[in-house]
Amino acid sequence: MFKRMLSKGRRLVGIGSMAAALVAAVPAMAQDKEPIVFGGSIPLSGVFAFAGVHIHAGLTDYTTWINSQGGINGHPVEYVMEDTGYEVDRSVAAFKKISGSNNVSVYYGDSTGFMKTIASELNSRGTTLMSGASFATALTDNEQYPYQFIPGPNYTQMFGIILEYIATQGKDGDMPTVAFVYSDTEFGKDPIENGKVKAAEMGIEVVEEIVTKPGSVDVSAEILKLRRVRPDFVVFHGYVLSPINEFMVQMRQMGLDTQFMGTFWSSDKLIVNKMGADADGYMGVMPYNYYDSAEGGPMLDALRAVAEKSDPDAGYRPTGYMQGWFNAMVWTEVIKRTIDAGKELTAENMAESLASIEDWDTGGIIGIPVSVQDMSFPVGRIWRVNAKEARYEPVSDWIHLD
Amino acid sequence: MRIGDAKQNYEADEAILSTSTQKIWFAFFLLVLLLFPFMVGSYLMYLGCLVGIAVISTTGLNILTGFTGLISLGQAGFMGVGGYTVAWLSMNTGLPFPVTLLLAGLLAAAIGILVGLPSLRVKGLYLAIATLAASVFLHFIFAEWESVTGGMGGLSLEPAHLFGLTFQTDFAMYFIIVPLAVLMVIGAKNVFRTRIGRAFIAIRDRDISAEILGINLLHYKLMSFALSSFYAGVAGGLFAYFFRVVTPESFPLSMSIFYLAAVIVGGMGNLLGGVLGAAFMTLIPEALKLLTAALTPFYPNAPIFMSPMLEIIFGALIVGFLIFEPHGLAEIWHRIRRFFSLWPFKN
Known about the structure:
The complex is a heterodimer.
Chain A: H1 2-24, H2 28-32, E1 36-42, H3 49-68, E2 77-83, H4 88-101, E3 104-109, H5 112-125, E4 129-132, H6 155-167, E5 177-183, H7 186-189, H8 192-202, E6 205-212, H9 220-229, E7 233-237, H10 244-253, E8 259-262, H11 269-275, E9 283-286, H12 298-310, H13 319-340, H14 347-355, E10 379-386, E11 391-394, E12 399-400
Parallel strand pairs in A: 1-2, 1-3, 3-4, 5-6, 5-7, 7-8, 8-9
Antiparallel strand pairs in A: 9-10, 10-11, 10-12
Chain B: H1 10-14, H2 20-39, H3 42-67, H4 75-92, H5 97-116, H6 125-144, H7 146-149, E1 155-156, E2 160-162, E3 165-167, H8 170-191, H9 195-205, H10 207-212, H11 217-243, E4 245-246, H12 253-266, H13 271-295, H14 302-324, H15 328-341
Antiparallel strand pairs in B: 1-4, 2-3
Helix pairs in contact in B: 3-8, 3-9, 3-11, 3-12, 3-13, 4-5, 4-6, 4-11, 5-11, 8-11, 9-11, 12-13, 13-14, 13-15
C-alpha cells in the first residue's frame, strides 16, 4: 500500500514538474505582464471533499491549460487556494488570507453559506467576481449579490428544465404527475416553491411533497405515501446519494413504474457506482457534457487531453471537475472581455462583461451557445443512466430557458 | 527578585491580580490586544475576532460545565438565539448594538433557564441528551419560523452601529468583540469570587453536600444555565454582526461540540483554560495549514493529501491532550509560570 502511495507520490511530483514546465513554457511576453489570480476556498476535506478534490483538479488543470495557451491576453494565471473543510468560517478565513496577499480578480466559493456571508465584503471591496459550487437561486439576486454568478442554471432553473422535459412525456394527451422529494436543508428547499409554481403554470400536478433529512436511510413511511399517489416522476433535490437509492430500490420492488430524476449534485457517477444495475433509468439535469459522453468540441477535447495528461490513471472525471473547469472558463472569458474593452479589472466591470455574454460557444463543454441571464446560464440537458455501460446518455436536446 | 507575596488582608487574598508582576503582564497583554489590529492584516484580524467570539462562548460553557458540572450540548442553540435576536432587532428596530446584544443575551438566558429545568432531575449524559434535544428544537424553530427567522435562507443584517458610527469592517468589529471578551472573562472571574460562584463549584463537587450546606440547587443550577446562555447569546449576537448573515446552518450541533472540546482542551473549571482552549481550537486548523503551505512548493499536490491529514492531526492533538494533559492547556500554562516564578534560582 505504502509502495503504491509512494509510486503515486512520485507520479504526482512528476505531474507537478510537468505543470511547472508548462507554466514555464508560457510565452515570454506573458511572463512580463502582471499575473491574474484565481482564488479559491476549496473543500478538500470535510463532507464536500468528494466533490472538492475534483473541483480543485478542474481548476488546476484549467490554469495549466490557459497558461500553455499564453495566459489571458498575455497575463499568466495563478491559482491560489486553501482548504476549508466545507466550514463557512474557514472559507472566510481562506478568502481573507488569499485576498490579503494577492490581487485576486475572481474567486471560487465552496458553499452558499460562504457566498452569502462574504457578499457584504465582496461588495465593499469591489475588486473580485465570485462563483463557485453553489447553484442557489438566492445568489442570482443582483441587488444583494451583484458580484456573484452561477456557473450554470440555478436550482430553480434546473427544476424548470426538468419540468420542461416531463411535460413532453405525457401519454394520450395527459400531463404526467410529479412528486418532489427534498432534503430539510437550505439546499433542499431552494427550488421547491418556484418549482410548484412552474409546474402549475405548465399544468403538471405535484401530487406529493416529501421532506427528509439528507442522507436518510429509513424512508419506508415516505415510500408508502408515494405508493398511494403513484407519481409518474419523482424529482429529488438536496441530496448526493441517500435516500435516492432507497426510494428507487423500494419503489421498484413495489412494482411502481415511476421515473426518478435529480439535480446537479445527485447526477454524477456516484449513484451509478453505488447502485449498479438498480441505477438504470435514473435521470439527471446536467448543464455540461459528461467527461465520458460521446460529445466533442475543441474545449471539451482540450479538457480531456489535459485531464489525461495530469493524471493518466484517473480515468473518468466527475462533474465537479467539469464544473471547476467551466468556472475558470467563464472567469477567463469575463476577464478577456474586460481587458479587451480597455477597462480595469474591477468587480463592476467584470460583472458587466459577464452580463454581456450572449451566444457564447463553450467549445463543447455545453452543447449549444449560451447566454447569461440574471447572473446564471439557464441551460441544461436531461441525461439517463445506462447501467450496463455505467454512464449517462442524453435523452433530451439542450433546453435553454427564456 | 520576587521572593514571596504575603497577603495581609482578605481583599489582597481575593484580588484577581495579586502581585505587581501579574499586573504588569496583564497591562502588557491589554496593550498587545490594543495594538494588534494596527499591526496585522485582514486575515489575522479576522482570526482575532473569531477567537474573541469563541472566548466568550467557551467562557459561558465553562461556567456551566467546568464550574457547575452540568454538561451541555446546547451552546450552539443558545448562540443561535442570540444571533437571530440581534438580526431581527437590527432589521426591525434599528437599535444600537449594545442594546441588541444585551437583549440577545437576556433572551438566551431566559431560554437557558427553561432548558436547564431538567438539570434538577438528571445529570451527566442524561443532561447532555436533554440539552441536545433543546438544541434540535431550537434549530427546528430557526428553520421553520419563517416570518421571524427567514426560514432556511436565514436573515441578513446591517452592520452594528452606535451614535452614528457604523462597525462594518473586521477592524471596527475587533474593537467591539475583543473588549467585550475581556470584560466578560473578567466578569466570570468575579462571579467565582462571590457566593454564587462558590455555590456553582460546590454543586459540581457534590450536589447533595451542597444542598445540605444550604445551597438551593434549583436556584443555582438555573442561575448557572442562565449565565452560561447569556454568554452564548452575546457571542451569537456578535457572530451575527460579524458575519452579517445568520441561517440555521450557522449554528450546527458540531459548533456545540467544538465549544465543549475547547473547554476540555483548555482545562475544565479554569477560566484561563477556556480562553486558551478557544484560541487553540480556533487557531490550530489555520496553523496546520502552514504545514501544507510549506510542503506545496516541493510537492504540488500537498493540499490534496495534507488537508484530510490535518483533520486527523487536529483530532489526535485533542485526544493527546485528554490522555497526557487532562487538566488542559491551563495546567501547562501554570507549569510554565511556576518554572519562571523562581527562575533562574530554581533547580
